[in-house]
Specification:
551 residues; alpha/beta; Leucine-rich repeat, LRR (right-handed beta-alpha superhelix); 2 domains; eight-stranded mixed beta sheet; 25 strands; elongated; metal-binding; DIOX_N; Fe2OG dioxygenase domain-containing protein; iron; metal ion binding
Length: 551
């Protein structure tokens, strides 16, 4: 039988054409025809599983369009730790790199190249298995469902990772179900990486004035993880990440990558590409170390770019504590509150599921450290159901934009409040009338509001008021409240259908509905007459079902 390209990849090319990705599909087909390799159907069916994301993708959004410069990470030679004269300087370089970069490279790390080479060979062999076999079987008898690919919670291409991986909990390494070569080399490498990680964490803890015993006692090898990664060639590399931007949820990560460039990290607000450096390992600080160091060591956002032609392999060792381990900095004031690793992982998973991305340490701030923040725009956070309690500590907040939010409490210094698309917002908090400095109030598409918020008449500094569907979902406005706003300069009411009395029962059926042009004209005259005493009003716009009035 003649050799040919993998059947699943041929099917993927057909699906790409059906999704309108024509030129890339032709390139993939040609590439497969050129290769005619013996590789079996091992690649995950990305296009079959995520076809809806490709069909709904925007015209733009190419990640490659960003200007990215290449860099060499700081390199630390660990052999100097054995030299009395150089050991202290070497430790200082490690602490400096963790503080300034959050990433650094190490050489002479003590892990034999032969072990790394053997694992790479076994890694390639494992990923060459048929996709169905990888997805259905436990890898080498390790506990848990170690094989994973793509991103099950992705709702857009920017949340999709073009990646397959074996995420191996090392807690199962002490209960071998098989003595395969791959398992043996995994255990050999993880033991070596555990010793290396202990050494580095001790140095970093020493840089904080600690002996590091707490981390060492709680980060045993059986609570850590080893991940074998493969990034398949991606025909739509400009649209999909190999691994989406993220930070690591551990203390420390030890990474061994191949010679295919792909890793990028964010520094100074810009993405920079990390040049592969043979013989080195990459170390990066995780979220737990950032919290434990009170922000001295940086857990830096990083990502992996997909490649249209080349596959990429890497191995990562994640230093994690037990779920019960409490994370707390001894520094005061502490930036982050005390939390357990289990609580942190649960919150991360919840955010990824609900929001599509990881929020991370921001969820665990001890107190609001953004005291100078003046503008907070949450207008696109449509899945946000509740405001963080810490928002009320933003004493200098001047402008707040919300969407799909159910609670709003006292923000005494707020000047501008925009509420857009909050279908569950039935009323503003009782302390709304205490926002006495408010000058702008915009309520757009708040279909559950039963009328102009009670207490609005006390906001004497209000200069601009706007409401869609006339400030409630039924086209009714409580006009009497507006008459008390003596400093009002702009009033916009859209889709006005009726006027209601502030004494009306808010649950009662709305009445005095305007049915024709004559009644609407009469209603507009009433509004004009009612606003006549207001000397500051400069702009009035009222849109009705049949007419629009602008002055």
């Amino acid at each position: 039988m003649s050799e040919g390209p993998p059947f699943c990849e041929l099917k993927e090319a057909e699906r790409m054409e059906a999704l309108g990705i024509v030129s890339e599909a032709q390139e993939l087909s040609q590439s497969l025809a050129d290769r005619r390799s013996t590789m079996i159907d091992s690649n995950p069916p990305f296009f079959a599983a995520y076809g809806s994301l490709f069909r709904s993708r925007p015209a733009a959004g190419n990640h490659e369009a960003e200007a990215v410069e290449e860099c060499d990470l700081p390199i630390v030679d660990l052999s100097r730790l054995s030299d009395e004269l150089q050991a202290e300087q070497c430790k200082r370089e490690i602490v400096t790199a963790a503080s300034a970069w959050g990433f650094f490279q190490i050489v002479n790390h003590g892990i034999p190249n032969g072990v790394l080479d053997r694992l790479r060979a076994e890694q390639v062999r494992a990923f060459r298995q048929p996709f169905k076999k990888k997805a259905d079987e436990k890898f080498l008898g390790f506990l848990g469902d170690s094989y994973r690919w793509g991103a099950p919670t992705a709702t857009s291409l920017k949340q999709l990772s073009w990646l397959e991986a074996y995420h191996i909990p090392l807690s199962s390494a002490t209960h071998p179900a098989t003595t395969s070569t791959c398992r043996c080399v995994i255990e050999e490498l993880s033991s070596a990486m555990s010793r290396l990680a202990d050494r580095l964490m001790g140095i970093l803890a020493e840089g904080l004035g600690s002996d590091g015993s707490y981390i060492k006692d709680n980060c045993k090898r059986n609570t850590c993880y080893l991940r074998l990664n493969r990034y398949p060639p991606c025909p739509v590399a400009g649209e999909v990440f190999g691994l989406v931007p993220h930070t690591d949820s551990d203390f420390l990560t030890v990474l061994c990558q191949d010679d295919v460039i792909g890793l990028q990290l964010k520094k100074g607000g810009r993405w920079i590409a990390v040049r592969p450096n043979p013989g080195t390992l990459i170390i990066n600080v995780g979220d737990l170390f950032q919290a434990w160091s009170n922000g001295l060591y940086k857990s830096v956002e990083h990502r992996v770019m997909s490649n249209p032609r080349l596959e990429r392999f890497s191995v990562a060792y994640f230093v994690c504590p037990s779920k019960e381990t409490m994370i707390e900095s001894s520094a005061r004031p502490a930036i982050y509150r005390k939390f357990s690793f289990g609580e942190y992982r649960q919150q991360v998973q919840q955010d990824v599921t609900l929001l599509g991305y990881k929020v991370g340490l921001t969820r665990f701030l001890a107190s609001c450290s953004l005291k100078k923040l003046q503008i907070l725009d949450l207008g696109h956070c449509k899945k946000l159901r509740k405001l963080p309690a810490q928002i009320h500590k933003l004493v200098n907040l001047k402008i707040l934009r919300l969407a799909y939010c159910t609670q709003l409490e006292r923000l005494v210094n707020l000047l501008v409040l925009e509420i857009e698309g909050c279908p569950r917002l039935q009323s503003l908090h009782d302390s709304f009338s205490d926002m006495e400095n408010l000058t702008e109030l915009k309520m757009m598409r708040c279909d559950s509001l039963t009328g102009m918020p009670r207490g609005v008449g006390k906001l004497s500094d209000l200069q601009k008021v706007a409401g869609w569907a006339a400030v409630d979902g039924h086209g009714s406005a409580t006009f009497q409240y507006l008459q008390t706003l003596i400093n009002l300069e702009e009033l916009r009411l859209q889709n006005l259908k009726s006027m209601s009395d502030p004494e009306d029962d808010p649950t009662a059926k709305l009445h005095e509905t305007v049915d024709d042009d004559v009644e609407m004209a009469f209603l507009l005259l009433q509004i004009l007459e009612g606003l006549r005493p207001n000397p500051t009003l400069e702009k009035l716009e009222i849109s009705c079902a049949t007419t629009t009035l602008s002055l």
